Amino acid sequence: MLNWGNLSMKLKMHHSAFSIQHSASPQRRALLLITDLEIGGTPTVVRELAIRLREAARVEVEVACLSPWGPVADQLKAAGVTVTPLNARGVGSLPLTLFRLVRLIHRGRFDTVFSFLVHANLMAALASAFCPGVRFLQSIQTTQLNPKWHWWVQRLIHGAADAMVVPSPSAGRVAREWANVSAERIVVIPNAVDVASFDAIAANRRIPAEPFQIGFIGRLDPIKRIEDLVASMKGWRLCQAHLHIFGDGPQRPHIEQEIQRLGLAERVTLHGAISRPHEALASIDVLVLPSDAEGFGLVLIEAMAAGVPVVATRVAGIQDVVDDRKTGVLVPPRSPLDLCAAAKMACLNREWRESSTAAARADVQRRFAWGPVLRQYAGLLGVEYGK
Question: Is the pLDDT of residue 206 over 90?
Fold first, then answer.
């Protein structure tokens, strides 16, 4: 069994060997560290960032995850990105996971470690003590208050990073308020989407007709409040609609129970996890995101790029993405009736739907396309974009 004393001694030995070899490698190398590589918003951001930094900014990028191998790791491997799972299995494996991470940083001769989400931020902060000369960046991707201990940990460790990257002004605000990160150390870089990959879907949008196809895409997590969206289906009485839920997660049993309790088994379909959103977006008339909190809401800009009207809750993060009544509709959280009314309007009001989807797609192209976003990341990493 590995104890902290043995860990410290082994890490120091690796540091000594690394110190001799590191100066011989002038090439810029970055390690992106994330908690897991399951299907979800932040793993998707990390996947796209890794691939695009290699192609457009000429940065040598590898990805590591604290957890065992996940489906997004398969996608990264297929794109030629090296992925290392650190295989953490609970708090008891923390010393061994830290040892593996520090060894990976040393052997990979990385000059930058960029971590995403609190567990990865914690491990990176611990590793920084054994990796002098390596630049550490952290990222907070949420505005969710609970669990509160995440913010307590983040408050303790953010000083180990040169900068804190957040996807929205709302996420930056909660990082200041709940983790005590100073404003000058916060860097707002929004999530991004490959707009061109949605061109065909946007060009072939059908005019909604009964039964209207309502969609949710994302992890089935309590913060998403999918039960509110399920309950909203009871309001479709004068016209027909079907709800499609794409995703998987811990909330699935509860959602299944709600569907049965409300007698909606024939009007709601659980499709399970999907590897990419394109096919789902091509099949629905409106996308609904009923979350209690979001750091950004990547699926919103994917839908907007695809010409799909969006309905979402008026909460932090989402309000930074959707301009109410212009590029989508915002409603109060935890209100099935408002979700239903907004989804109906998006399906039935052809004039609004056409104007809002055109405005939304133009807004995504201007603010959330990979070109301008990647330029910001390249600047943060100190490399020339497109060179």
Answer: no
Q: Which residues form the domain of 38? A: 4-192+369-381
Does residue 131 sit in the same domain as residue 201?
Answer: no
Q: Is residue 387 part of a domain?
A: no
Q: Which residues of 270-291 are buried (b: 16+ CB within 10 A; e: fewer)?
A: bbeeeeebeebbbebbbbbbbb
Q: Tens of pLDDT along 214-262? A: 999 999 999 999 999 999 999 998 789 999 999 999 999 999 999 999 9
Residue 386 inside a domain? The answer is no
Neighbour-count burial of 136, counting CB atoms closer than 10 A to its CB (0-12 exposed, 13-18 middle, 19+ buried): buried
Task: Give the CATH number, domain containing residue 83.
Answer: 3.40.50.2000
> Do 272 and 186 have their domain in common?
no
Instruction: Name residue, tokens 């560290």.
Output: 33
One-character DSSP codes across 323-384: -BTTTBEEE-TT-HHHHHHHHHHHHH-HHHHHHHHHHHHHHHHHHSBHHHHHHHHHHHHT--
User: Both 92 and 241 in a single domain?
Assistant: no
Contacts of 343-351 with CB under 8 Å at 24 or more apart are 343/212, 343/214, 343/232, 343/241, 343/286, 343/288, 343/311, 344/212, 344/235, 344/236, 344/239, 346/285, 346/286, 346/309, 346/311, 347/208, 347/212, 347/241, 347/285, 347/286, 347/309, 348/208, 348/239, 350/207
Query: Do 156 and 210 fall within a single domain?
Result: no
Range from 19-33, 182-196, 226-240 carrying the lowest mean pLDDT: 19-33
pLDDT number for residue 27: 64
Which DSSP string corresponds to 191-212? --B-GGGGHHHHHTPPPP-SSE
Q: Based on the domain organization, do 162 and 129 belong to the same domain?
A: yes
pTM: 0.91
177 and 28 share one domain = yes
